[in-house]
Amino acid sequence: MAEGLAGREKEHRIGPYSLIERTARRLVVERRGAPLVSMIAVGVVFLLLVVVVAPWRGGTRLPIALCLIVIALAVELLIAGFVPRLERLTVDMATRECRIDRLYLLARRTQTVRVPLSGVGEVRCRQRVWQEAPDAAVIRWSVELVGDGKTWPLAEDDQEEPMQELARLVAEVANVPKR
Known about the structure:
elongated; 6-stranded antiparallel beta sheet; 38% strand
């Protein structure tokens, strides 16, 4: 009964997350990011811009090309520093905590957030809407732990169904109500 899904299923997807382990007392889901792919795409785009600038005649092509290279490096450092390559959400009843681990390319250690389940009153799945203009809105769904006057964000995606399912699983394993 304490075994995970490894023996029964190959992989179960919940939106961008992969279900690694699900038992009555433990839930582990992971999301793998692709910061290297993003960095390569940024590098290719800026390399193409440098190639377009190179045939110019005059003394401005070198400074423009150097500025584009510096901008590309800055964007790539931001991607490496702020886009996680792995996010792991663990709800463990043995330790009575929910843990969120994030691994980044530039960080030498894992960023970990621990939430004691004794202070959690409910699991909430809610919709956030950012409206830039009257006709342009971005809708994001987030799963959060709520309790003791605090809110801890667990996951976020643009689709409702996977986030509702993730909130249901977290509430079921953590033995707290889902709202």
